[in-house]
Amino acid sequence: MRKTLIALMFAAALPTVAMAALPDGPGPMGGPEGHMMGGPGHGGEHGPRGKGGPFSQLDLTKEQRQQIGKLMGDQWHARKDLVKKYLDKLPAADQKAMQDEIAAGKQKTQADIRAVLKPDQQKKFDEIVKKQAERRAEWKEFQAWKAQQPQKAQ
User: Fold this and answer.
1) What is the pLDDT of residue 17?
2) What is the rounded distance in angstroms from the CA atom of residue 94 to the CA atom of residue 154?
3) Torsion angle, alpha carbons of 70, 75, 80, 85, to 10
4) Which residue has the higher pLDDT, 33 or 145?
5) Which pLDDT value is given to residue 43?
6) Rounded distance between C-alpha atoms, residue 60 and residue 66, angstroms
């Protein structure tokens, strides 16, 4: 059971890594503005989406990068749906435990990132994290509203 869970989580993370390798291509969240720190690749020339990516040697046009980005985004969403399908089959206790473990890991990573930053950067980072939390809450609210719409039409 634990091995399957780890394998599913790893499979879900692979497309994210692949998306990060695309230079100037849209990420799973719609481009550079979807990144945590708001910059393209947030690593400069040597970052994940800089000149060292796997597609950098292909001399792709902007259109090709966009098409490949869309294809990889579609793959990312399909894999996410597949993982969700199998995770939904887990008992509720295991699902809750996994969500708690993911949340704890995210909080630890954010704390570690914050510790590296200067005080003014920490302020900006906190604002970014807060805005992301607000957007997630709005999205959840929208999804709940959207789920109610077909029921009202009947």
Assistant:
1) 52
2) 35
3) 130
4) 145
5) 43
6) 10
Same-domain check for residues 62 and 15: yes
Nearest alpha-carbon partner for 55 in 44, 43, 69: 69
Structural domain span for residue 72:
2-116
Orientation of helix 62-87 relative to helix 2-20, angle to 10°: 170
The tokens 């302020």 sit on which residue?
123
Residues 80 and 137 in one domain: no
Asked whether the predicted pLDDT for residue 54 surpasses 80, the reply is no
Number of domains comprising the chain? 2
Cβ(26)–Cβ(70) below 8 Å: yes
Amino acid at 140: K
Distances (CA, A) of 37 to 2, 40, 73, 88: 33, 9, 20, 32
The answer to whether residues 81 and 58 belong to one domain is: yes
> Same domain for 111 and 153?
no
Pair 83, 130 in one domain:
no
pTM confidence score = 0.50
